[in-house]
Amino acid sequence: MISFGRAVGDWLDHRAGIRKVLQAVLYEPIPGGSRWRYVWGSTLVMAFMTQVITGIFLWMAYSPSTQTAWESVFYIQYEMYGGWLLRGIHHFMAQAMVVLLAFHFLQVVWDGAYRAPRELNFVLGLILMLIVLGLALTGYLLPWDQKGYWATSVGTNLASQAPLAGPDIKKLAIGGSAYGHLTLTRFFALHAGVLPGLLVVFLTLHVALFRRHGIHARIPHRGVDQTFWPDQVLKDSVAALAVLAVVLGLAIHFHGAELTAPADPANPYDAARPEWYFLFLFQFLKWFPGEMEVWGAFIIPGVIVLVLFLMPWIGRTRTGHLINIGILCVLLGGAAALTAQALRDDYYALWNTKDDVLPKNSPVITGRYEASERFLNAKVEARREAERVIELARSPERIPPTGALTLAYEDAYIQGPKLFQRNCAGCHNHVAKSKVTEKLQGTEGEKDALLRSAGLNEIDVVNPAPTAPNLAGLGSLPWARAILNAGKIADADHFGYKGSPFADGEMVGFVKDNLASLKAGGDLETAVEEIAHALAAEAALPQDSKLAQTEFFKNSAAKGRQYISGGLAGLVETGTSCVDCHKFHDKGDLGSAPDLTGYMSREWLMAFIRNPADKRFYGDNNDRMPAFAPHDDPKLNQLDDKSLGMIVDWLRGDWKRPEAKTSAEPPVIAGPIETH
Amino acid sequence: MKSPTNPSGPPVAIKRGNEPPPTRRSFVTAAAAVVTGTIAVLTPLGVGVAAFLSPLFRKSQSPKVQVALLDQVPDDGQPRVFPVIADREDAWTRYPAQRIGAVYLIRNKGEAKPTAFTAKCPHAGCFIGYSSGNKLFKCPCHTSTFKVDGTRLRGDGEVAPRGMDPLPVEIRQEAAKDGKQLASVWVEFIDFRTGIKERIPAT
Prior knowledge:
The structure holds two protein chains of two kinds.
Chain A: H1 2-16, H2 18-26, E1 29-30, H3 40-59, H4 69-78, H5 83-110, H6 119-141, H7 146-159, H8 166-174, H9 181-213, E2 226-227, H10 228-253, H11 279-285, H12 293-314, H13 318-351, H14 354-357, H15 363-394, H16 404-409, H17 412-423, H18 444-454, H19 477-483, H20 506-515, H21 523-539, H22 545-548, H23 551-564, H24 602-610, H25 641-651
Antiparallel strand pairs in A: 1-2
Helix pairs in contact in A: 3-5, 3-10, 4-5, 5-6, 5-10, 6-7, 6-9, 6-12, 11-13, 12-13, 13-15, 17-25, 19-21, 21-23, 24-25
Chain B: H1 24-52, E1 64-69, E2 80-90, E3 93-106, E4 115-118, E5 129-131, E6 136-138, E7 145-146, E8 166-167, E9 169-175, E10 181-188
Antiparallel strand pairs in B: 1-10, 2-3, 3-4, 4-8, 5-6, 6-7, 9-10
C-alpha cells in the first residue's frame, strides 16, 4: 500500500513536480518555532473558505429578484433541511471575519511587520480588508428584507453624494434610479462573483509575498526553529476550530440569522441600521450636518484609509512606528466610542424612563428619548410583521407568485394598524386595556401568535389626545358590557371622550338612570348581561366564537334579544327599552339612534365608516366623524373598499388564522376579562 | 528559429541574456501580438461594460398623481400624510397601483391650494414622520427636524442639507357619478436627489 502511494506520488511528481510544491508549502521555516500569535492569517483563510463553501450551497437555493429573493431566503431558513444552520454559519462567519481581520491588522501594525520589504504585502492586506467589507455590505441586502433594504438604501443614497460622479455611481450600483430587480442581480454578482474573485486574486498575491518574505518572526525567539508543518498547522487548525465553534454556537443560539419582513419600498423601516461593525460610521455621519456630510462620508474616511495605506512608510522610524500605533489606538477608541454612542441613542428609551427624562427639560435629551422610542417601536412592529408574514408563508396556502409582499399587503393584521394610524388615529386611539398579553407566557413573538390565533387585537395605536372613542375591543362582549355599565359608558374610552356631545346624551342618560345600581343576581343585572350577550352575538367576533357555540351563550343571547326588542321596558324605571330609540331586526325604527341589527358586524362597520351620518347610524347626530366612502364611484372616496375592509377586520380581530401546525389550543378568553 | 527541446522533459527555455537581438520584424510581431491579444480580451469586456452602464442612459419620469380630495385637507394648517399611488416599473415587472411614496399636504387658513412636501428626507431618503405634539417633522434615521413649513428647525445645524422638498400641486375638478363636482389634489411626484443643497430631480 505504501509502495503504491509512493508510486502515485512519483508519477505525479514526475509530471507536475508536486513534491517541490508540497515541500515549499509545508516546510516554510518558522524561526523561533510555532506560536499562537501567528494563527490569525490562517484563521482568516479558513473563514473565507467557510464563506465560499456555505456561500455556494446558499447560492444553490437563492434567487435574486424582488419576488423571489426574500422568498428563497425564507425557504432556506424555514423549510430546507439544515438551511437555517447553513445560513447562520454564513451570517456569523462573515462577522467573525471582520473581527479576525481587525486582530490580524492590529498585530501586523503592533509588531511592525509592515516594514521593508513587506510594505507591498501590507498594502495587499488592506485591499483584502476593503474587499471583505464590500462583501459584508453587498451581502446585507441579498435577503431583501426590511432591515437590509432600508439600511443599504441609506448607504447607496450616501454614495450618491460622492464627489464628482456620485449620482452615476449610485445608479450603476443599484441598476437604475430606484431599488429593484437589477439592484439584486448586481449586488449578487458583486457578492458571489466579482468580489470573491478579486479576493482570491489578492489573497494569492498576499500569501505568495508572505512566503517570499518569510514569516515576520517575533524577536526574541522563544524556542528552536520549526517548520510550518506540523506544529504551526496544528495551532492554526485549533484556532480555526475555535472560531468555528464560536460561529456554530451563535448560529445555533439564534437559530440561523434574522429574517425581517419582506422589503417594502412603500413602508419605511425606522429602525434600519447597518451591521454592528459599520455602526460607528453611521453614528459618525450624525456629526456632519448638511453639506458637511461629504466630510463625514468620504473625505475623512478617505484620509483615514489613505493613512492606513501609508503606514509602512510612516513607520520606517521608531517614532513613526509609535505614531502608527497611536493612530490605531485613536481610531479604535473612536470607533468604540461612536458605536457605544449609537447604541445609547437607539436604546435610550429602554434604559431610561420618561419620568427621568422629561424633568431635565433639555430638548436634546427629550429628542433623543423620542427618537429612541420610535426606533424601539419600529423594531417591535417589524418583528411582528416578520413573524406574521412567515406564519402566512408557512401556511398551506404558501406564497403567491407575486411574492411574499402580497401576503403582507392582503393581511388585515399587518395593514390594519397602518391604515388605522393614517385614517383613524387623528381622532381615535386604539389602546387595549385588558392586556391579556401580560397574562401569557413565552417570548413576545409567542405571545403575539397566541393573541393572533385567539383573535385578540392588543396592538396599540396611541393618540395621546383622542377626541373620539378608544376602539380597542370594539364589539366584543366586554365592549357590550361597558356600554351598558353606568360607570363606563361615559368614560373617555366610550361616550365620554373629549368634546363628546353624547356624554350627556340619551343613551348615557338611560344607562345612568336605570342601570346605575344593579342588585347582584337580580333580574335586571341578569338582563343586562343577556343583552350584552345578544349584542356580542350580533357582532360575532372571532374572539367570542368559542363562547358563542355554547348552549349557555345561545340561550342567554336569545333572552337578551327579547329584552332588546322591548322586554327591558318592564324591568327599568323609565319603562323604555332599546327599540324605543334603536332599530333591532324587525322592531323599532331608524332615525334616532344606530341600528342594532348586526351591530359591529363586518357589514355594519363597513357601512358605518362609509357614512356614519346615514339614517341607519347617527344621522344628524353624527359627531364630526367624516364619511370615508359615501360615493359609489371609488375614485371619489377617501378610503377604497379594500382598505376599509382591512381596517374593519383588524378592529374586529378577524384576520386570517392559518390552520397549519397549531400545536397548542388558542386560549379561550371570554367572560372574566374586561376590555374597558 | 526552432526552440531547443528536450525529448524526455519540458521544453528548455532560452536562457536570459541569450535572446536573439531585436529586429524590425520581431518588433512588428510583438506589436501585432499585443494588439490582437488586447482586442480579443477587451472586446467582450467592452460589450459587458456597455451593458453594465445601461442604467445611466435610462431616464425616469415624474408621474402626476391624484393624492387626495380637497375635502380631506381642511385649511387648518395641519400636515396630513397621503400615500402616492402610481404604476411602478421595475426592469421587466410592472406593478399596477403601487405606493411609490407619500406626501404631506398642508393647507393654511384661507388657502385654496394645499402645499405638498414629499415625505422622503432630503438627507438620505428615509421617510419623515410628523409628530403633532410639538408640530415638527422628524426623520427617524439621522434625526433631522423640520418645521411645519418644511424649513429646517436648526437651519444649517441640521443633518439634512436643505428643507423638505415641495412638490407642484394642481387642483382638478372631477365629476362624480352622481354629477357632483369634486375638487381633487394632484401632485407631480418628483424624486429629488438626496444629500445636496440644491433640489435636482433624480432622473
